[in-house]
Fold:
Amino acid sequence: MSNDRSRAPGWRAAIKLWFLLDVVVALAPPLYWAMDGDMTPIAGVPAALFYFLAVNVFITASLVTAYLLDQADGESAA
Structure:
């Protein structure tokens, strides 16, 4: 029996990088909005609201993916 808990260590590294990208995207909104004040709507939604909704979806996707990969890893180890 192998002592290696993870069968896909590359996935764990990719998820860690994805979480790092989550932090950067969430904490650093586009600076050009702050500089020029232009809030052109995107798909009929104010640009700032669209940005934060997109960030929310991106972060949620990373959490769900990490959870599903962890569940699959746990099932394969059992």
Observations:
- Residues 47-77 form the longest helix (31 residues).
- The mean pLDDT is 78.
- The helical segments are 9-27, 31-36, 47-77.
- The chain has three helices and no strands.
